[in-house]
UniProtKB/TrEMBL annotation:
Listed name of the protein: Metalloregulator ArsR/SmtB family transcription factor
Coiled-coil parts of chain: none
InterPro entries, alphabetized: ArsR-like_HTH (IPR011991), HTH_ArsR_DNA-bd_dom (IPR001845), SAM-dependent_MTases_sf (IPR029063), WH-like_DNA-bd_sf (IPR036388), WH_DNA-bd_sf (IPR036390)
Domain HTH arsR-type: 9-104
Pfam families, sorted: HTH_20, Methyltransf_23
Signal peptide interval: none
Species in which this protein is naturally found: Marinobacter salinisoli
Amino acid sequence: MTSMNAHADQLVSVTSLAPIFKASGDPMRLEILRVLRRDTFGVLELSQLFDMRQSGMSHHLKVLHKAGLLEPQREGNAIFYRRPLHLDSDKLTDQIIRQIFETVDQIALPESLQERINAIRTQRADQSQAFFARHAEQFREQQELIASFELYAEPVAQLLRQRATKQNWQTALEIGPGEGAFLHVLSGLASHVVALDNSKDMLAKATRTCIDERLHNVDLIEGVTDTLLGRGDNFDLVVANMVLHHVPSPADIFLDAAALMNSEGCLVISELCSHDQDWAKQNCGDLWLGFEPEELTAWAADAGLAAGEQLFIGLRNGFQIQVREFWKASTLA
């Protein structure tokens, strides 16, 4: 009887593996899995990337989804696709899926495909930048439709001050400082602070904040993280408050932050948890409706960062904010 049960279990395992190998046995589907390594794309964007009719792309996505190789992510009325967040290391099918991902990730994307990906990211960035250009004067009011500044700024500041008792932060970077309301915190923690924003209008407001509060150790730079990477800058601390849902490729923030961080550097992020309130895109210029905590953890791990402290703040309007800490060193501070 025991041998019969063992044989039945083996048949179940083999049967469950077949859809995975069938779905991954198509070159186009492997290409789709490659571009979803860190990005999340909708069916129209994927059709644009691969110059394919939407019906054909939808078929490929359906097969990959059914095999467990990707999962849909609802962003309001739109559906995007990503690699699965939860893969069980003890489950045979998940082990195979992880091996497929690791294998295709070793193959570099063709330059032409990378250019199309960059074009989509540029479209997203332009959309976000245009929103802030239109609503620069109402920035605080727009943001506080979701959460007032103090609700996430105070916990982040408290965490940083706690860490500062053991850390000697000489240089700090804030990505997307907005009006510069958090810069006084960083100015008091580090000898030199850089504030980086791609919006000229928001930088003008942050400059006024620095003047009014006499923050003489803050440099404001117009650009993106590539700007600082090209200059060869390095930082002990990187902070991004409520920024990820405005950037075209959130996973790249982790990669760039890690590249900009000194050894044993720290990255602190405050961000919305995943939600379904689609009005935030129109009213607040959000590109993404928050993120699952596992997404941030996976992106950080992919960038060589180890997760540290985490705090979740529930808001009365149904939103939830996550405050996350990541370290470049293998041993947490």
